[in-house]
Design brief:
By secondary structure, this protein is an all-alpha fold. It has one domain. Helices cover 71% and strands 0% of the residues. The protein contains 15 helices and no strands. It has helices at 13-37, 41-46, 57-60, 65-82, 87-115, 121-132, 146-162, 172-191, 203-207, 213-228, 232-260, 267-281, 283-290, 294-322, 327-360. The protein is globular, with a radius of gyration of 20 Å. 48% of the residues are buried.
């Protein structure tokens, strides 16, 4: 049975709430496991001599799976956002969504790292420049920026597809293109007996969407399922790409366990991922029960992106300054900063970017709501 075109993503409370829950998973991973056991270089400088509690590591080490769920959400939301959009308008909306928070959050992080003497000023300056330009290679001001290059690659593929039309059926074939390439990559890894050898961390492969393409494909197919109804081909694709995603998660679990020296079991991550995919699949069905949350859940969804970009280095700085028990306070600080970024900093910057695109490129009028992407 065919279903009507879904509402704009901001009306999907389940998507917004899931996005925020994914951010909390990532924060828990960094505050409970990564920073105490294997901090990034700048955080290691700040935390030198600070003994952080490692008792939560076994319970939070799988929180990185929030990033994989971000990619599924991104596939779903972008599939909706791209319907009826011209390529120029699509690129403008992506720039309006990604760039303002990246500019503001990278600058805030730079100021904190400078205040904490967490690196040489020229080095930090180059890291800041890479971050605000979304440069996809090299060390950024905060390690969390690694996902933005992958997101940008996905957006460019979508924009390329839109050059041939933007009807409802134009985006769905992308699921088979990027999901199929990801399936081939992981099948090759399995056949070679090297699925957990860390090759998934090779930056070129990531930018080609090979390790993570299956997650975007899942989101696209779930959107197609909601838009046009189920069929055998979509069901087969969902099964194939769920399986591919499970292999990636198992490989990521092994890779993370080596870095943290904790349990390598992928079961908690797989369980969290399955629940998240179910939430995306059920987002339209549960909307009538969650409609009353739309106003504040939409704000939580928008806050997810700056929260993701700010939490790691600023959390390390607060723990270094106030002691190992300061992570709850750090979370409160980065949530407040994220709200401020969304409420005050992003709107004028978005307007400026929109005006710049209109002046230089003259895109066709596009009044579709801006979908909030995942930012992993």
């Amino acid at each position: 049975m065919r279903v009507s075109e879904p509402q704009p993503p901001r009306a999907w409370a389940a998507i917004d709430l899931l996005r925020f829950a994914c951010a909390m998973l990532v924060v828990a991973h960094h505050y409970g496991a990564a920073l105490p056991l294997n901090p990034n270089p700048a955080a290691a400088v700040m935390l030198a001599g600070v003994r952080l509690d490692t008792g939560w590591a076994e319970w939070t080490s799988f929180g990185w799976v929030g990033v994989e769920l971000f990619f599924v959400i991104s596939g779903y939301v972008i599939a909706c956002s791209a319907v009826g959009a011209a390529p120029g308008a699509f690129v403008r909306r992506r720039a309006q969504r990604l760039l303002p928070a990246a500019w503001v959050c990278a600058t805030l992080t730079l100021a904190v790292l400078m205040a904490m003497h967490a690196g040489a000023l020229p080095v930090l300056g180059w890291q800041w420049l890479r971050s605000v330009s979304l440069w996809p290679v090299g060390r950024a001001i905060d390690p969390s920026y690694w996902t933005l290059g992958i997101e940008t690659s996905f957006y460019l593929v979508v924009a390329w597809r839109l050059r041939r039309g933007s009807g409802p059926g134009r985006i769905e074939p992308l699921a088979w293109m990027i999901g199929g390439a990801s399936l081939f990559f992981w099948a090759t890894q399995l056949l070679n007996g090297s699925f957990d050898d860390g090759r998934m961390n090779a930056r070129l492969l990531q930018l080609l969407l090979l390790p993570h393409g299956a997650f975007f494909a899942l989101g696209i197919l779930l959107h197609a399922w909601h838009r046009a109804g189920p069929n055998a081909l979509r069901a087969a694709g969902l099964v194939l790409f769920l399986g591919t995603g499970a292999v990636e998660i198992a490989a990521h679990a092994a890779d993370s366990a080596r870095g943290l020296n904790v349990s390598a079991s992928p079961v908690p991550a797989l369980a969290a991922f399955a629940l998240g995919v179910l939430a995306v699949a059920a987002c339209r069905r549960v909307q009538p029960w969650l409609g009353w949350t739309c106003r504040w859940s939409a704000m939580l969804g928008l806050m997810t992106y700056p929260l993701y970009l700010l939490h790691q280095q600023i959390g390390a700085a607060i723990a270094a300054a106030f002691g190992p028990g300061a992570f709850p306070a750090a979370l409160a600080v980065v949530i407040a900063l994220s709200w401020s970024v969304v409420r005050f900093a992003e709107p004028p910057l978005r307007r400026a970017i929109g005006a710049a695109f209109s002046a230089r490129r003259g895109p066709r009028p596009d009044r579709r709501p801006t979908a909030s992407p995942s930012a992993g």
